[in-house]
Design goal:
This protein is 32% helix and 27% strand. It has 237 residues and is of the alpha/beta class. Strands 6-7-8-3-9-10 form a six-stranded mixed sheet, sandwiched between helices.
C-alpha cells in the first residue's frame, strides 16, 4: 500500500556538472504538513537539489518521488517552485502575472491569489518595474502559493528584502499551506525564519551533513538552529 503520509522521497540522488559533483548520494524524506529548512552556504548544493525536485534538472543517479509518483510530467501539478530570482517580465502588472499563471497552471486559484495580493498590500495594476525588491518577492510568493500543490519549494525567499518584508513573507509562508502539503525553504538567513521549521537539513558540498527535527536538535545541542548553523559553517566559511 502506498504511504500517503510522505510527500517527498529523495533516494540516493547525485548530480554532476562535468567533473564537479553538485549533489552526492543525497537521500531525505518529507512527511505531509511539515516545513523543512534546507540550509547551507552559497554553492553548497541547495539550489541544485531544489531544482532537481522541481524537475528543472535531471539527476545523474538516484530518483525523486512526490506523492508516490516519480518526478516528471506526472508531478507538474503537485510541485510549486519559487526561484531565487525574479523571472517575471518587466512589462507585467500584478494582474498580468496572475493571468499568466492561471493560463499555465490548471490548479491555480484566482480567488486565493486575489486574497494574497490584499494580504501582501499589492495592487493588481502595479507594474513589476515599479515594485521594490520586497514587493516583487511578495508577488512571486503570491503566485507560488496560489496553486493547489502538494509540495512548495522556496529557494532563498528572503534574499535581499528588508526586515519588514521578511516578517510579512514568513507570516504568509506559515499561513498559506495546508496540512496536506509540505514546504522546503532553502536559506542561509537562518536567524530570521528558524522558528517556522519543523525539521532542518544542513547541506555542504552536495552532501547532507546533518538532519533532524528542529526542536530535538535545539535540545540535544543546547543552542538555536542559527547558532548550530554558525558552529557548522562558521570556521569553514
Amino acid at each position: 500500500m502506498k504511504d500517503t503520509s510522505v510527500i517527498l522521497e529523495v533516494r540516493n540522488v547525485s548530480k554532476y556538472y562535468g567533473a564537479k559533483k553538485a549533489l552526492a548520494d543525497v537521500s531525505l524524506n518529507l512527511p505531509k504538513g511539515k516545513i523543512l529548512g534546507l540550509m547551507g552556504p552559497n554553492g553548497s548544493g541547495k539550489t541544485t537539489l531544489i531544482k532537481t525536485i522541481a524537475n528543472l534538472l535531471s539527476p545523474n543517479d538516484g530518483e525523486i518521488v512526490v506523492c508516490g509518483k516519480k518526478v516528471g510530467f506526472a508531478t507538474k501539478s503537485l510541485v510549486s517552485f519559487l526561484p531565487d530570482r525574479n523571472i517575471l517580465p518587466a512589462w507585467m502588472k500584478a494582474k498580468d502575472a496572475i493571468d499568466f499563471y492561471a493560463d499555465y497552471f490548471a490548479d491555480f486559484d484566482r480567488n486565493k491569489a486575489s486574497h494574497m495580493l490584499n494580504l501582501m498590500k499589492l495592487k493588481p495594476e502595479q507594474k513589476v518595474t515599479a515594485m521594490s525588491k520586497g514587493m516583487v518577492e511578495k508577488l512571486n510568493l503570491t503566485l507560488c502559493f496560489s496553486r493547489n500543490a502538494k509540495l512548495f519549494l522556496l529557494d532563498e525567499p528572503l534574499g535581499g528584502v528588508d526586515p519588514v518584508a521578511r516578517e510579512r513573507i514568513v507570516s504568509t509562508i506559515v499561513q498559506s499551506y495546508s496540512e496536506d502539503s509540505s514546504i522546503i525553504v532553502s536559506t542561509h538567513l537562518v536567524h530570521d525564519i528558524e522558528n517556522m521549521f519543523d525539521s532542518v537539513c544542513f547541506i555542504d558540498e552536495g552532501s547532507i551533513i546533518l538532519t533532524g527535527e528542529a526542536e530535538q536538535l535545539r535540545i540535544e545541542r543546547g543552542m538555536s538552529i542559527d547558532q548550530l548553523y554558525i558552529k557548522i559553517f562558521g570556521e569553514k566559511y
